[in-house]
Amino acid sequence: MADNSSVQSVERTFDIIENLSSAPQGLTLLELSSDVGLPKSTVHRLLSTLTGRGYITQDPESKKYLLTLKLFEVSSRSLAGFDILSAARPYLQHLSMITNEAVHLVVREGARGRVYLQGRFVQKYGTDGFSYRPP
Predict the structure, then answer these.
(1) pLDDT digit string (tens) for 56-74?
(2) What is the pLDDT of residues 113-122, one digit of tens each?
(3) What's the whole-model pTM score?
(4) CATH architecture assigned to 8-74
(5) Can you spell out the DSSP letters for the chain?
């Protein structure tokens, strides 16, 4: 439920986006209207705006609305400055310590992966053998 400071149209827009994210096959205007509990005219206006901005598309045959990759593109830009190594290191060290095994942080890049952090952290020997391979 929205609080008093929320903007109703933004709330409704995110209701639509979240419903579409749960329906990879897409949803019709009628299905979306029913799911979010809004009149078809309201949902249609919001869908038109989202379509115009490139966040959703409509299949011409089925008339179903689908999310595009634009949300992913926008959110990916915010990760540009994210330091994955600093964030992952304590978890990898803990995992290595409790399993007594080597651990690796691999980030998928296309069909392959790139190793960013690998090593072994064994508390009983007091070693910290992590290494970093720059992208």
Answers:
(1) 999 999 999 999 999 988 8
(2) 666 655 655 5
(3) 0.61
(4) Orthogonal Bundle (1.10)
(5) ---TTS-HHHHHHHHHHHHHHT-TT-B-HHHHHHHHT--HHHHHHHHHHHHHTTSEEE-TTT--EEE-SHHHHHHHHHTTT--HHHHHHHHHHHHHHHHTS-EEEEEEETTEEEEEEEE-EEGGGTEE--EE---
